[in-house]
Amino acid sequence: GAVDKIKEAGELVLLTNAQFPPYEYLGDDNEPTGVDIEIAQKIADELGVELTVVDMDFDGLIPALNGGKGDFVAAGLTITEERQQSVDFSDEYATSNQMVIVTKDDPKVAAATVEDLEGKTVGVQLGTTGDLFMSEVEGATVKQYKSALEAGMDLANGRLDAVVVDKLPAQSIVANNDALMVYDDVLTTEQYAMAVPKGQSADLLEIINKVLTDMSGEMEALTQKHFDL
Ligand code: GLN
Predict the structure, then answer these.
(1) How much is the pTM?
(2) What ipTM does the predicted assembly reach?
């Protein structure tokens, strides 16, 4: 099984995209940190191995997982039907929403509804559920970025009408940029889970789920801690 191989190798390899605060971001030492990284460390501890974090583009995570480049993905990853075709998901460990960021002065999108986004130029992170959501909005021009942080900068610079991204990253972007604000209304409700290669890692999944259950009581405080950093 997967666990035997991980123990033999002495390392658990996490695939993530460290551009998604508070779940994963680069800390002051330029090393990936965040909620998912701390959970991953507990999973490695449970297995008695070292944690190795591989930081890559979000849209490359599932292909890399299925190409054998890592043992699991933890990346604020939303459970979707399409992804369920190619990976096995752990238990859910967080609820999120897609939210709309606009400029504070003279917002170009009036409110956070699909109708308000129609015909607008909207930034998203490539391959995310925000990208998927916007691909179905009529007449919208969708600009795909490597990270929502970059999209936020282009919004502040007047190159976009709005950015659609997950709730806590949206709040983090806005907290770090006085020119931006986020609407309270939400476009979607989503569940985050970790992912392992399909049909190959039931034993690893069991350990991931055990750690998620063990940590469920501290998840809120852990999230708050990384949000405040
Ligand atoms: N939750 C979103 C998704 O799964 C975005 C995740 C991310 O950008 N790290 O597509």
Answers:
(1) 0.96
(2) 0.97
Angle of helix 35-47 versus helix 202-215 axis, rounded to 10: 120
Nearest-CA residue for ligand 1 atom 10 is 128
Q: What is the pLDDT of residue 229?
A: 65
pLDDT averaged over every residue in the chain: 97
166 lines ligand 1 (CB under 6 A): yes
pLDDT at 78 over 80: yes
Burial class (CB in 10 A: 0-12, 13-18, 19+), 169: buried
Q: Give Cα separations from 148 to 19, 21, 65, 143, 217 (angstroms).
A: 8, 10, 22, 11, 29
Does pLDDT of 136 surpass 90? yes
Element (H, E) at 103: strand 94-103
Going along the chain from its start, the domains and CATH numbers come out as 2-93+193-228 (3.40.190.10), 97-189 (3.40.190.10)
Classify 120 as helix, strand or coil: coil
Crossing angle for the helix pair 219-228 and 167-175, to the nearest 10 degrees? 30
Strands 11-16 and 72-73, bridge-based pairing:
parallel
Q: Is the CB of 16 under 6 A from ligand 1?
A: no
* Closest to 13 measured CA to CA, from 86, 69, 89, 93: 69
Burial-class residue 52 by CB neighbours within 10 Å (0-12, 13-18, 19+): middle
How far is the C-alpha of 169 from the C-alpha of 146, rounded, in Å? 14
**Contact 147 CB / ligand 1 (< 6 Å):** no
